[in-house]
Each structure stands twice: as C-alpha cells, then as structure tokens.
Amino acid sequence: MNCLEVQKRLTGHALDEAAAVEGEAIDRHVSGCPACAGELEALRRTAGLLRAMEWPEAPASLTPERRSALELRAEAPFVPGRSRPHFGLMAAASVAAVGVAMALMSPSLMRARVATTRPASRAVAPSRIPSAEPAVVPDMSRPGKRDGRERQVQEAKDAPKLTKAQRGNLRALGYIQGGSVNGSVDEPRSAKEEVVVTASRAETMVLGYGGDVRPVPDGFLARDKASTRDMFFEHKGTNPFVSTQEDALSTFGLDVDTASYSVARNYLNRGALPPADAVRVEEFVNALPQDYAPPTREAFAIHLEGAPNPFHPGYHVLRIGLKAREVRLRDRKPAVLTFVIDVSGSMARENRLGLVKRSLRLLVDRLGERDRVGIVVYGTRGRILLDPAPASERREILGAIESLRPEGSTNLEEGLDLGYEMALRTLDPEATNRVVLCTDGVANNGVTDAETLLRRIHAQSEKRVFLTALGFGMGNYNDVLLQKLADQGDGQYAYIDDFTEAERFFLRNLTGVLEVVARDAKAQVEFDPSRVESYRLLGYEKRDVADEDFRNDAVDGGEVGAGHTVTVLYELKLSGRGGDLGEVHLRYQDPDSGSAREQREDIEQDRLESRFQDASPSFRLTVVAARFAEHLRQSRWVKGERLQDVLVEAEGLPRSFLRKAEAAELLDLMRQAAALSHPRD
Amino acid sequence: MPEDTEAPANRPPDDAQLLEHLRRDPARGLPAVLAQYERPLLRHAAAVVGDSASAQDVVQEAFLRLLANGHPVENLAAWLHRVTHNLALDHLRKESRLRKLHRAAAPPSEPLAESADRDLDRREAQAVLAQELKQIPPNERAVLFLKLKEGKSYKEISVITGLSEGNVGYLIHHGLKRLTARLRPAGTLKGVAS
Questions:
Q1: A634 to chain B nearest CA, in Å?
Q2: Interchain proximity B176–A62, CB inside 8 Å
Q3: Mean pLDDT (chain B, rounded)
Q4: Contact B46/A55, CB-based, under 8 Å?
Q5: Residues A85-90: what's their mean pLDDT?
Q6: How many CA atoms lie within 13 A of A554 on its CB side?
Q7: Which residues of B touch A60 (CB under 8 A)?
C-alpha cells in the first residue's frame, strides 16, 4: 500500500476496525513510513483522550418529573385521539412531552398559559416584570383516576385567533379539549404571529404560524424567562428629554460598574463594533479616571461643571462628579474574600482561566495577614478548593489558584451556593465580607431560572456579603446575567479583557474594590423649571428609580467603594434666565451603622462655562466619551452625526492631556470604531 | 415508583423479557426498561445534542414512543438507540434553525489551538476536545460517541443510525482527523497525500 491508501484506512486501523489482512498491510507500511506512523499515533492518542474524557454532560437518570410522566403514560398507554400521533409533531414536541403527558394524564388541572411572543427589542427589563407567576405543576404525588379528571376550561371565544394548524396541534398536545383552550390566551397581534404555550415553566414551547411546535429559542422569550443559558446583552432604552414643567425630578441609583467599556474595547480590538445593547453610557463615563478631590467629612464630594454642548447647539452639558471617601490602605477593614471560580470547559478558551489566575494573584499579593481567602470552584459540580485561610498563607492560596484546570460544564448555581455558604460561615461583622466571582458568565448546568438565582443572591447580600462579579472571555458571554448578579449581590461588575485591565481594576484602587463606603446610594437632581426647560440624563437607564422612591430605603441603589468616582452627565435646555439651575441630592446608607444619610449641593449658575473650550480637559473628554458611547449604542440623539465629528472634538484637547493613557486609549477606540461604522443618516 | 421490578437480582433481564413484560403490563414493565436503558440513552442523546436538558427531553420522548408503540419491537436496544438518535438530530435541526434567526451578534471566539505553540498536556487537550466536540456536525459527534464511548462496532452503529457502514467509517474518519488536527499547534499539519 502507498501512503494515500494507508491514510484512507488509518482511522479504521487506529480504532481496530480494519480487517486483519488489511491491518497487517497497514502495519507493514507504517513501520517504514514515519509520516504515517506519526499520524497513526496522533489518531490513537486522540481516540484515547476521547475515550477517557467526560463527554457532554449526560444526566444519569431522567428527572423525577419526566419519569413520573412516563409512569403515568405507562399506566394509561392508550390515549384516545393520540394513538397515531403525527410524526413531525411528535418529534418537534419533545420539549412539550412532559406537558403532553401531564395534560392528558394528570388528575389535577394542568393550566396552560398561552401568550404571544414578544420580539426581543420590545422586551422590558426582567427586574420590572412582576416575577413570573408560580408555575402550575400537577401534583404528581397523588396519582388519581383518569375518569375523575377535572379541567378548568376557558370558553373558546376567548381563545386567540389561532391558525388551523396551531389549533390542531394544540389539540393534539392536549391543550384544547372539545374546542376550549386550557388556560388564558393572549390575542396575537397579527395572524402571522407565533404563539407561546406555557404549561409550566419547564414546558414552554413556541407554536409557529404553521402549527409546528418547537422549543423556545434562545433570546426570543429568553428575556422574559431570563434563562441563564443565553448569551445576550439587553437594551434598556435611552432616556428621553424630559420637560421640567412636567417632571423636575431626576432620580437614579449610583453606579460604579465599568464592564461595558471593557467589553466594547474587546470587541473593537478584535475588529468588530460591539452590539449596541452592550454599550451603557454611564459605564463608559465611569471607566474614565477622574481627579475629583475627595471629601473631607462626608461620604461624597460633589463636583459640578458645565458648558455648552459642542454636539448639540443651543444645549448645555452638566457634569455631576462624585468622589467617595477614600480609605487608606492601612486603615481599611480586614477583608474576608471567597473566590468563586468558573473552571468549566469554556474557560479553557483564549486562556481565560490563565487570566483569572494572574488577576487573582494580583489581588492576593496585595492582601495582608488580617485578610482571609477561601476558594470555591465549579465545573460540572461545585466544590471547595480551599477552606478560608489567612491571606498570609500566600503559598497555599497561590498554589490552590495555580492548580486550577478547566473541567466539565458550568454549574454556576452550585458554585455560588457553595461560595455564599462559605462566606456566611466565616462571616466577620468587623470585616468586609465579599464573594469574588470569576466567570465567563455562562451557566449551562444546574440553574435554568435566573430569577431564582438572583433572588437567592439578593437574600444573601442582605446578610452583608457583597459581590464582585468579574467577567472574562467573549463569544458566549452573558453580560446581562453578570450585571444582574452584581446588582442583586450589592456589588460591582467589571469585565477583565486582559491583564492590563486586571491591574487597573485591582491596583488603581484596591480599597475601593474591597471596602464599601455607601450602600444603596441614590441621586436625585431637582431642576428649577424657571431656569431649565428640559433635561436628558445620559445613561443610567438600568438604574432608574421612581422619584417617590428616593427616600424609600427598601429600593435598591448602588454600592460605592472607597475612593470610587461616579460621573453623571445631563444635557440641558436652558431658559436663558439667570439663577441657580437646581439642586443635587444624594442619599445612601452608612455601611456600618445602616443609618441613612443625605447630602445636597446647589447647582450654581457660575459652574457653567460660556464656551466648551474653556471647560476642563477632563470634562471635555468625559463629554466625548459619552457621545462616543451614544454612537455605539445607536442612540437616537446622535442620529445624523458622524463619529468622525466627535473625534475631531476630542483631538482638539491639549496635547499633554491626550498623552494620558486613558485619553489615548479612548481616542484609539474611537478611530477604530469610526473606521468600522458606516456613516448613518 | 413501584419497587417490584421483577428483574433477577444479578443479571439484567434480556430484551425479550423486558419487551414481553412491557407489553403485558406497561406500568410494571417500565421501571426495568428504564433501569436498563435510561442511562445509556441519556449519554447517547447528550453526545448528540450537547446539553442535559435537551437530552432529557429527547430520551423521555423516546420512551414515550416506546410506550405508544403498539407494534412489536424486534431489537429493543437498537430500536431505542435509533429513535433517540433521530429525535436528537431532529432536535438539533430545529434548534439550529432558531438559533440562526435569533443569534446574538458576537465576534467569534479565537481559534482554540492558536495560542498553543507547545504540545498541549492531557487535560488541556481534553478541554480543547470538549470544546471542539461542540463544533463538529452532530452526526460525526454521534458516531464518534457510539464508537469510542459505547464501544460499538461500525456495523452496530450502522444499525442504530441507519447509515451505511461505509458512511459510518467515513464520518468517524473525518471526525477523528479533524479533532486530531485541532490538538496540533498551527502549522505542523502533515499533508495527507504524498
């Protein structure tokens, strides 16, 4: 045999499938051909690795619900009208199979919720959706007699105008009995719309226009269902101009997250524009270092500056800069840290785990003997890697971090549960207790319902454990999940795209990362209607708080760490009359005493410069950064404007200022984005 | 669940017994069938669809079909695997159609092996393989699984999948070569023909 013939048969030979005679011929060739020998060895090695490894997570048994459904079916194998199911439907309806069996067998009512699907763009923030109604799951513990079956049925006239095929399949699935649909049904907005049938949370399916039944796709209903398994970003809308006559109060939670900026940077550095939904203006602005002077007595120093808006003639920009109280390194409270580290297979990509290791080493190196570190890891399952140890035992801690290897799937839920359990066990009321989550954000095992996870995190954070959510990696990255985890966990969310970012995050302000100086911090800006005709808050859409909830301490604000800066931009239409523009109010809770504090500051007229060029360089760069973010998120307020024009404004900044790393980086990103984006009209 | 599975304590009942029992009394026959096939079928389904929830759906549906099947089944193991296999592929086809419609815009991840200029160690290699297995066509993944993890012969795989033996051999050949290539640092691929 020659090489070509051998190569064709080599795989079979490596797997012992080749016939004996053929095998001998191959062996003869291979013994004299190093290339084919190498290939054979490589194939055998791969086969060996594949044999020895865990394949996609395979459950050992069916879930109890599914088993029960099968048992119920076995008790009544013959179902009228279903003895010869339509093949295509049956194949498609696998997701609904539980529902089928339950609906047909269950003695108690299986109430189906039928709703029309909502296009993703119209999805609202899940946090504002009243938590999903409790799923109605048939009581499997009481197997009953089938003839005693009761059903709440809804009159057929209430049913939406389903297509014939949809009705047929709903009937076949047991959701329609004798012309009535089980459960309540929304009117589809058009005949072509798909219908979503929810029998219980676990059994949601899409009923297509043509009557085909399919699992609910990722990102379709996912925003309502808030499944943790999807990679997505979420659009929270863009704040409009508000007439001061109608509403002079602007209220929102403070925010120190910066993830959106580094996520966008990562996209741009890979030569792609970030998805518009990944861009949050406030996180761009807050990613810029600001040199606001720290407060002397209070928790915050409030810095005000304004100037005409160079991008919107006739309008002004107002910057409210907040600087949180600084805490010197040696004065900071001890930290009790629980690292919860994702070691799932996806963390092997792009050396994500390697970056996690280096980042955590940075942090551990800065800790002292009063601090403690424990480590939980999770792949397919969660487990404790290191029981809480004093940070002075560096060798042991770093050794544990170094030992991390990617494994299995992603059981975020179990990892976080174990982490919080550890954090609560070692809770030190005198210290800052914090869970540090390092993940690429994908949860494909354990939890299927993000809401449950978030609620649990929230309950834990009430027990005074803070969360730092650090995002790594890209491609299947779940921005929304991490953002919400940090929000519910009273914490901070940052995206670490490279080691420089890790250094920036941990080294620039370590006490800020570790120690919180204001909890549930909110801002309320009151504009004077005689001075300000209308205003627009740039960003902070995800932190919107109702005006009347400013002093409601049950309503979440943001947690602000020591020395953190928070920057807020408003665009204003001034009336032209003289006088102060309004007032800034801050409200927060002291992290130690838990008591609420307030601060206020007048927005004096002389804070406004008469020309944009007269304002400070940092003010001007901040305005540019926000404008850039608005371009990337395709805000309607920048329609018709070219990113190039924003860049020109940025390039007009003093040379010395532009040499600063953050300014240089921002301009570089803007140039990349300008090259990538097509001029929009 | 009823405790009387009526299976001999030591030896699992053979397929003929299982089927006979199931036909006579489905409610009592089912647990023994589940005990025997639930796990291998879940493994099979998971190997194709790649996640446990979908695998659960697929296998449940396969058993539902067994229960609904009035016809005598000849070879229970092959029948169950074949139904599971087809349902799993159906599932993926539907999913991928949907995903195309609703995929979130994201730049592709960097190629896995690109950063590795050295030989990957065993665990890293397996992590790479685990990722790569998600990328290859489900048909290839399924036959590789049946061959390497279930130890089935090409012939048995042919019965389960309905593919010809030659086709099975080709898919395995192709899949294994592709996976092997991913474990090599870029640029060291040897030419196949000479």
A1: 15
A2: no
A3: 74
A4: yes
A5: 32
A6: 1
A7: 39, 42
In chain A, ranges of CATH 3.40.50.410 domains: 335-514
Please give, rounded to a whole number of angstroms, the shortest distance from the CA of B162 to a CA of chain A: 17
CATH superfamily name and code, A242-327+517-676: Gamma-adaptin ear (GAE) domain (2.60.40.1230)
Q: What is the pLDDT of residues B80-113, one digit of tens each?
A: 888 898 888 888 877 765 555 443 333 334 444 4
Selected residue of A1, A8, A49 to mutate for chain B interface (largest B Cβ count, 10 A): A49
Contact B115 A351 (CB under 8 A): yes
**How confident is residue A443, by pLDDT bands cut at 50, 70 and 90?**
low
Say which CATH topology domain A335-514 has. Answer: Rossmann fold (3.40.50)
CATH class of segment(s) B107-194 = mainly alpha
pLDDT class of A346 with cuts at 50, 70, 90 = confident
- Sequence length of chain A is 681
- Say how far apart CA A448 and CA A153 lie, in whole Å: 30
List Cβ<8 Å contacts ≥24 apart for B162-168.
B162/B82, B162/B86, B163/B139, B168/B143
Inter-chain contact A90–B47, Cβ cutoff 8 Å? no
Q: Please report residues of B whose CB lies closer than 8 A to that of A2.
A: 194
Residue of A51, A93, A217 lying closest to B148 (CB–CB): A51
Quickly count: other Cβ atoms within 10 Å of residue A429's Cβ.
7
Locus of tokens 């003997």? A369
Whether residues B194 and A52 touch (CB distance < 8 A) is answered with no
Q: Is B120 on the interface with A (CB under 8 A)?
A: no
Burial call A126-151: b when 16+ CB within 10 Å, e when fewer:
beeeeebeeebbbebeeeeeeeeeee
| H-type alpha helices, A76-218 | 87-92, 97-105, 164-172
